[in-house]
Amino acid sequence: MRRVVVTAICLAAATGAHAHDWYENKVDPVTNFKCCGGTDCRPIPQSSVQARADGGYVYLPDGFHIPPDRVQESPDGRYHICESHYVITNQPYLRCFFAPRLKLSLAR
């Protein structure tokens, strides 16, 4: 029985790590800072995101206004956010944001 429990825990840990592997090598296109420092990134529900007319988004829980040049394409068709907190104030700040598809302008 103990072996089954240990195996289940190991599988759960490996699955969780694999699910977040794609965040590891991502950087914000504007700041060039890494998106993930371990537990900074997660999928978020579509209901927590509001599209803006300029191609950016608002992340409603934290009130982040995300300009279009910081929006990256999500590989799984879901919204994802990477955020950390300032040490002294504990205020959240945006590291990276991923949306189901990028709205690219070809007129440059």
Topology:
Layout: H1 2-19, E1 41-44, E2 49-51, E3 57-59, E4 64-66, E5 71-73, E6 79-85, E7 92-99
Parallel strand pairs: 5-7
Antiparallel strand pairs: 1-6, 2-3, 3-4, 6-7
Shape: globular
Computed over alpha carbons, the radius of gyration is: 16 Å
The helix/strand series, from N terminus to C terminus, equals HEEEEEEE
The end-to-end distance, rounded to whole angstroms, is 63 Å
Determine the fraction of residues in helical runs and give it as a percent range.
Answer: 10-25%
Domain module tally: 1
In total, how many beta strands?
Answer: 7
* Uncertain stretches: 4-18
**SS field, number of helical segments:** 1
Which range does the strand content fall in? Answer: 25-35%
List the strand order in the largest sheet. Answer: 1-6-7-5
Q: How confident is the prediction overall: mean pLDDT?
A: 81
Based on secondary structure, the structural category is alpha+beta
Major sheet size, sense and barrel closure: 4 strands, mixed
Structure commentary:
The protein has 108 residues and is an alpha+beta fold. It has one domain (2-99). Helix content is 17%, strand content 29%. It is built from one helix and seven strands; from the N terminus they run αβββββββ. The chain has one helix spanning 2-19, and strands spanning 41-44, 49-51, 57-59, 64-66, 71-73, 79-85, 92-99. The strands form two sheets. It has a four-stranded mixed β-sheet with strand order 1-6-7-5, with no helix packed on it. The N and C termini lie far apart (63 Å).
Characteristic key phrases:
alpha+beta, 29% strand, 17% helix, 1 helix
